[in-house]
Amino acid sequence: MSVTVRVPAKVNVRLAVGAARPDGFHDLANVFLAVGLYDEVTAAPADTLRVTCTGPDAAQVPLDATNLAARAAVALAERHGISPDVHLHIAKDIPVAGGMAGGSADGAAALVACDALWSTGASQDELLAICAELGSDVPFSLIGGAALGVGRGEQLTPIEVGGTFHWVFAVAEGGLSTPAVYGEFDRLTAGAQVPEPTAPPALLAALRKGDTTALADALGNDLQAAALSLRPSLADTLTAGTAAGALAALVSGSGPTTAFLAADADAARTIADALAASGTCRSARVAVSPAPGATVR
Ligand code: ATP
């Protein structure tokens, strides 16, 4: 018997970053939106913990105990006093180190898969608590949809979404390290008064109404300047997508994936084709949002 769980990527439609705290983390107001690019994690009985991975970026995924899927299995097993003997196979379609929370997604998916495989019967609250221990973005991968995250981004309040949004994601060559991007944010904001991070009411209203034009006006990412500083060529990708008709363009999370909001499915296809032809990115993917969280198939 095995259990397969499908889990979505995310885009941050508003990532407001506060000043660095004494512990080095930043307070965030982080509006997550799950998008329909998916990884699948399959958990199967095994003699020992083992991780395998397939997909275009598989070579960049660590298969040892640092893999977030493996860490999730160990965390659940420890809490229930069992041995984490499981084969976790990740069918990876979410870009790696792309600012789309692919590793976090696999952590949430592995947790749900192992809970079902081992019949540990963890409540949603227990699963969310384990997710928060694994990383700031992991709880959102569990619940999907849309949510406002405060604290380090892990304290979530779900947001209702009243329609479908059409996106294009330009996948860049190579990744960007999230800590390096925060380090650059600290460097760029040193000595400046960094405002308290908040989520604009207009953005939350746009999500609730399913209003694409209003969402385009309210998108924002405080890490964008830092990502562009580390990878100046991303400006060319943003320009190419905007020239092809995107209503708005932004760096996704810590990058280097860039996200483009399109008026409808046809516009998304046109923007993706133009980006792919522009030579400013490795590939361009269309996806719709919102998408459901980690779900057993
Ligand atoms: P975020 O958006 O949460 O900042 P990201 O999408 O930029 O994350 P990930 O794809 O999660 O980045 O990968 C970041 C790093 O995490 C990788 O370079 C890899 O070393 C490590 N990692 C651990 N587990 C996984 C996993 N299951 N899949 C991908 N990367 C993983």
Automatic annotation (TrEMBL):
Pfam families: GHMP_kinases_C, GHMP_kinases_N. It catalyses: 4-CDP-2-C-methyl-D-erythritol + ATP = 4-CDP-2-C-methyl-D-erythritol 2-phosphate + ADP + H(+). Residues 203-278 form the GHMP kinase C-terminal domain. Its EC number is 2.7.1.148. GO terms for molecular function: 4-(cytidine 5'-diphospho)-2-C-methyl-D-erythritol kinase activity. Signal peptide: none annotated. It comes from the Bacteria. Coiled coil: none annotated. Keywords: ATP-binding, Isoprene biosynthesis, Kinase, Nucleotide-binding, Transferase. InterPro entries: GHMP_kinase_C_dom, GHMP_kinase_C_sf, GHMP_kinase_N_dom, IspE, Ribosomal_Su5_D2-typ_SF, Ribsml_uS5_D2-typ_fold_subgr. The keyword ATP-binding applies. ATP binds at P95, V96, A97, G98, G99, M100, A101, G102, G103, S104, A105. Residues 67-145 form the GHMP kinase N-terminal domain. Pathway: Isoprenoid biosynthesis; isopentenyl diphosphate biosynthesis via DXP pathway; isopentenyl diphosphate from 1-deoxy-D-xylulose 5-phosphate: step 3/6. The active site is at K10, D137. Belongs to the GHMP kinase family. IspE subfamily. Catalyzes the phosphorylation of the position 2 hydroxy group of 4-diphosphocytidyl-2C-methyl-D-erythritol. This is 4-diphosphocytidyl-2-C-methyl-D-erythritol kinase. It comes from Streptomyces flavovirens.
